[in-house]
Amino acid sequence: MAKSEKVTPMMQQYWEVKNGLPPNTVLLFRLGDFYELFHSDAEQGSKVLGITLTRRNDYPMAGIPFHAAEAYVGKLLAAGLKVAIVDQLEAPQPGKLVKRALTRILSPGTTLEANQLASERNRYLVALDWNKAGLHAAWLDLSTGEFQLATDVEPERLLPVLTALDPAELVLAEETLKEWRAHPHEHTPHRALAAFCAGRAVSELPGYHFEAAPGARLVMETLGVLNLQGFGLDAQHPALGVAGALVHYASENLCAKPENLRSIREYRSSAALLVDPATMRNLEIFQSARGTREGSLLGAMDATVTAAGARLLEQFLASPALDLVELHRRQTCVGAFVASPVSARQLHEDLGRVRDVVRILGRLQNRLRNPRELGGVRDTLEQLPALAAGLRTFEAPEIAALADRIEDLPGLRDTLRRGLREELPAKLEDGGFIATGYDSELDRLLSLTRDNQHWLSELERTEQERTGIRNLKVRYNGAFGYFIEVTKSNLSLVPEDYVRKQTTVNGERFITESLRQKEKEIFHADENAKAREQHLFTDLVQQVLAHADSLRATAQALAELDVFLGWAAAAREWDYCRPVLDESDVLEILEGRHPVVEQMMKRDALAHGGAHRFVPNDTLVTASGPQVLLITGPNMAGKSTYIRQVALITLMAQVGAWVPARSCRVGLVDRIFSRVGASDDLARGASTFMVEMNETANILNNATPRSLIILDEIGRGTSTYDGLSIAWAVVEHLHRDHAQGPRTLFATHYQELTQLDKHLDRLTNLSVAVKEWNDEIVFVRRVVPGAADRSYGIQVARLAGLPREVIGRASEILARLESEEAVVTVSAPAPKARPRKSIQIAPAEDSQLNLF
Hints:
MutS, DNA mismatch repair protein, domain I; disordered C terminus; 42% helix; MutS, DNA mismatch repair protein, Chain A, domain 3; 6-stranded mixed sheet; Nucleotidyltransferase, domain 5
C-alpha cells in the first residue's frame, strides 16, 4: 500500500493484518458471505483458483463463497502458498464497522481440515538445526498430536528417518538453507541437508526461536508440565530448541496454543533399522519408480481398513524396530489372527466402521468443530464393545493386552447416542443436529417454531378466504422478513388493514399488525433454539474432550489391531511364514519371493486370464561365513529381483510382519544399503556415475558387520576397465581381512569378478540359471551355485526385437572378440591392467568398422 493512499476503515483492518503476514501468504478477508482477496493477492488468487478478477476503488479484488472456502484453500496450498484467514467476530450492524481478526494461517504442514489431508498418510512439520553438537530435529503431526525430537552427531543417521517421514513443510532458522546450499559440489553434511530440503516447502524463523532454554520452556508450557522427566527427557536436551521453534510456528499459524499436544518422545537412531534415502528409492519402499503407492512395498503390505492403521503401517516402515521383545509381540499377534481366520475377519469387518478418532480429536481440540466429527466419535464408540469382546476370545496374552487397551466409555457412548441425530449436517450453522428428546428446553423452542410455521400456513389460508384472492401468498426473505404478497391484478381486493411494505414488478407486498407480532415471536424462538442447540453442542464437545486421552490411547490400540489383522490376512492369502528373529549374524531364507512382484504377477495373470507362478529362491548369507554372494547371469534373468527380495524380506521381518518364504531366519540388521539402478542428478551437476559413486561411498563409509548391502552393477557407469577395477576393489573392501563383514549381495555382469572366490574365502559365486534351445534362451529364474558361463546379451537383444541383421553382425563381432580377449588372472589382489591391442574384424557389407 502506498503511503499516500487513503483507505476506508475496513481496508485499514485489512492492511493491519496483511502487513504482518509472512511472505508468500494469501489473505482471505471475510465480508458477509464471501472471503475477499485484494490487490496482489486477488491477482495471484484469480490465476490459481480460476475465479473472476474485478476492480473496486481502483484496486483489484476477487472473492470466493464462505461456505465453499475449504476447497479453494486446498488449491492455494497445493500451489505452494500459505493462506491467512480473517473472520468476522460479530454480527454485522448498520452503520458500524464489523470487528475482524486473524483466526488461522494455513500452511502445508499445519493444515487440519479433513479434505486437505490424505487420510492414510501423516502430515509432518519438521524443524531442523545443525551445529557443532550435531543435527537437531523435531517433527510434529499437528493433525494427530504426534511430537518427537532427536539429536545425532552424524546427520547421515537422522536423514533416513526424516526422509521416510516425507515432511510437508520444513522450519529453519533464517539464512540456514542459504548456508547449506553454499557448497553444492562437495559431498558434505551441508549438501546432504540441502538435498533433503530441495523441493519441499520451507518456512524461516529468526534464529533466536531455536535457542534451547526458551525452547524447553515453551515445550513444557504447551504440554502443561513443570518438567520433562516424565517423558524421559532432560531440560538440557539439545534438540529442545528446534522443538520450541516448531511449537512457536504451529502456535503462530493456529493463532492459539496447539491443544492436542500431550506428550513428546525422543527418537534414537540407534534403536531403529536405518534405511538411507537412496535405498528407500531403489527398493521402492514407500512409492514405486512411477511415484505411486501401487507397486511399492507399502502398497503390497497395506491391507488396513482404517486411516489410522494405514498411517501406523507407514510409521513402522519409516522406523523398523531393533527391539526383539516388541517385534515378537507383533509377530505373535499376527500369528494368533492367522490361526483363527473366521474371528479375524469379523474383527476386521467391525474395525472398518471405526472413524479416524485421533484426527477428529485434533480438530476438536484446535477449534475446528462440526457435528459430523462428533458423529464419528459416536460411531467409533458403538464398535468398541464388539471389538473388545472379539479380542478376548483369543488365548494369546499379547491379544488380551491389546483388548485391555480399548477403553469402552459407556457413559460417553450413551450421551452421544442420545444427544445426536442419526443423520448429521456437515456444518454447525446448518443446525438440526441435536436429537429430539435430549433436551426439554430445546424441544420446547423447536415446538414454538413448528407451531409458528403452522400458524403461517393457517394465516395464508384464512386470508385467501377473507379477501377472495386465491393466489395470495405469505412469504419470507432475509431482507424484509415475513410479508403477504398480492399480484397486481388483485390489488383492488386488498383489505384496509394491510400496510404496504414493498412494490415489486409483479405486485405489492404487505404486512399486518398480527403478522408483525408473530414475526417477532418467530425470530425470537428461532434465535433461542439455535443458541440452545449451539450450547448443547459445545457441552457435548467438552464431554468428548474430557475423555481425549482415553480415546487417543484406544485409537492407537485399534490402529495396531488393524495393521496386525491386515498382515494376518496377507499371510493367509500369500502363504507367508513367521520369521525367526535373533541376535545372530545369519540371514537365511528358504523359498523366498518378492512381495511386490508376486502380487503384480497375479494381478496381471487375472487380468489376462493366464496363470502365474513366482519362482522362489533360497538365500544364506552371514557376517562370518558366506558373507559376500556374487551373483552373475544374463539381463532379465532375475538378478535384480532376487537381491531386492532379500532386502525387502529382511525389512518386513524387522517391522514384525510375516514374510513371503517357506522359512526365514533374520539376525537383526542395523542398516540396509543398496546401490541399484542408474540415475542422473543433473540439477546438482552429478552424472549417473557420480551418483553411483556417491551412494557407494556412503555404503562403504557407514556399513557395519550387522548391515545388509545389496549392490547391482557397480561400475557400469564408466569405461569397462575402470568399472571392473572399481567393482573389484569394492568387493575386496567389503570382504576385508577381518573375521566378519556386512552381509552383501553383489549382482554383476563382470565375469572376471567370479575369480575372486579363489582368494576371498567368504565370497560365494551364485548365478541365475538359463536354458538354451536352438540358440534361444529360456529364463528359469532359479538362483544356483556357481558362476554364469556368459552374459547372453545378444540373445536378450533378440528378445527385445533388434533387427535380425544387427543380431547377426553382433554375433560375428562377439565371436572375434572372445577369440582374441585376454583372460584376467587373480594372481594379484586386483585385475592387472591389460595392454590395449588391436583386434582386426572384417567389416560388414556397406560398413567401415575398425574396433580397437
